[in-house]
Amino acid sequence: MANRRSRLNDDVGPDVGSRPNGRCIINACTGVDAFFVLLLDAVQPSVDVGECTQCIGDVDHRLAGVFEIAWRNERAGGRLLRVVEMLLMIDKREVPGLGIFQRSSGGNQEIFRTDHLAVDPLCQLANGYTHDNAPSLVRRRAIRLRSEDMYRHRALQIKPIANRATSVHNVSYPSPLERNDMSQTYRVAIIGRTGKGNYGHGLDTAWIDHPGTEIVAVADEDEKGRDAAQKRLKCANAYADYREMLKKERPHFVSVADRWLDQHRDMVLACAEVGASIFLEKPICRTLAEADEMIAACEKHHVKCAIAHQTRYSPRVAKVKELVAAGQLGELMELRGRGKEDQRGGGQDLMVLGTHVFDLMRYFAGDAKWCFSRIHFEKRLATIPGDVRMGGEGMGPVLGDRITAMYGFDQGLIGHFATQKATAGIGARFGLFLCGSKGIMHLLTGSLPAIYYLDDPAWMSAGKSVKPWQEVTSQGIGVPETATSKGAFELGNSRIVADLIASVEKDRQPLGSIYDGRAALEMILATYESHKLGKVVDLPLKNRTHPLA
């Protein structure tokens, strides 16, 4: 103990609270040794430095040794957190061999930057890390939990893993939000805009009574809407400014619920900056440039974003994918989708509801590689800019009242999409046909959409075949349904929320991620780009601005 404290030149005392303003300074001359001695002293004061053989090697091995010791002793977690918090108070110090300790201006996402790796001790302890063939044992994880959250919710519970290997090179640590302390509650905030997209399709109420979550606040610029939402959601706080809410409440998750697209980009960036993962109403935004910014922000701040494509999350659709993979339809030959074709038929339908169809196309066929389209307005070929108009719901410019588009996927698979202002059968054709060499399936949309299967390679139920259409449920073809949903979106939203939380805890992307949302938007905008250029366009699009702007 004495020799270690002397090595710190008494610059770091044992009690953070005894230092002026809770601050401490590591003398630069102590270098990398002081950093690890300090951590070792935190996790196990009774052990000498020499007892940790892993701490005599390079930076990776030293840090591994520190966490190995911490793992052996459950109480060590609290002590290590205390020291890490102390280290985070360092303004800026040059430390030989370790680069620069630097606190970010945001104050909530401090990073220890080094020449060859990024060491975020607080998040590394929370998130865990693995060592296999990675170039560095220490690697940044997807979720960054703020120190105040650690203490408030006791998110860190260091417990041994069953059958854990004793060798530090084979250690596997838990992911960030795998809560050993199940009393932890995730803080949830809601952003809505009464009169401007409101609260979307139930993205606010999706969190009510969801296990392990608590809605702590809502933001709405409309006073009456805000008051109503606060009562509906039974949350303690309400704000007119969502930025103020995010700053004060520091939520773990946020529903960006409004349907209007004009602020989606700004809202997602603001959420990401405070480290909150996002449940976002579709479509994700207006342009690919905005989508690129949103994705960059989520990646930078290590947060997840799930898109409200409820049909993708349906247990019935999951069963269809299973059946297709098993060869029920034979070779998948063609995809046929149509919009809702109501008064929004054409450009607005393409944007608002086409996103669901394109998301389903990609769910079964993967990324589109090219697009060719033709757009008409009032029974003639639409012109740009003459026929361009501003769409509703803050979506930006739209074009046409009749759209036909074709998309190419891998292995020659073709997808078709069409929408027009229909005079009959409004909404009846909204969905997707999966056409295979053995049969065909018709999928509608929603949490438990109607799905029908025809076992006929001619794709017809009359004439030579006379085979009946059979209903497909989550249990299979012609098997009674066991799943239930209170409404069109309730089950889907609940499954999205559960998957979003799981994606954070397991450090993976949601089933319907922001990348999927951007890809659906790219198919939408490729439709305009192809019509404008009068030719096939390749995806991803080179033009990241709106083709009609």
Question: Can you walk through the features of this model?
Answer:
There is one protein chain. With 549 residues, the protein is α+β, with helices and mostly antiparallel strands. The chain has 3 domains: 2-170, no CATH class; 186-303, NAD(P)-binding Rossmann-like Domain (Rossmann fold, 3-Layer(aba) Sandwich), CATH 3.40.50; 312-486 and 517-538, 2-Layer Sandwich (Dihydrodipicolinate Reductase, domain 2), CATH 3.30.360. Helix content is 31%, strand content 18%. It has helices at 2-7, 31-43, 59-72, 76-88, 121-127, 147-153, 223-233, 242-249, 264-273, 288-301, 315-325, 347-352, 354-365, 490-505, 514-533, and strands at residues 92-95, 99-102, 111-113, 118-119, 186-191, 213-219, 237-239, 253-256, 277-280, 305-307, 332-338, 370-377, 380-381, 389-390, 397-398, 402-408, 414-420, 431-436, 440-443, 451-454, 470-473, 476-477, 537-538. Strand 14 (389-390) and strand 15 form a beta hairpin. The longest helix has 20 residues, at 514-533. It starts with a helix and ends in an 11-residue tail after the last strand.
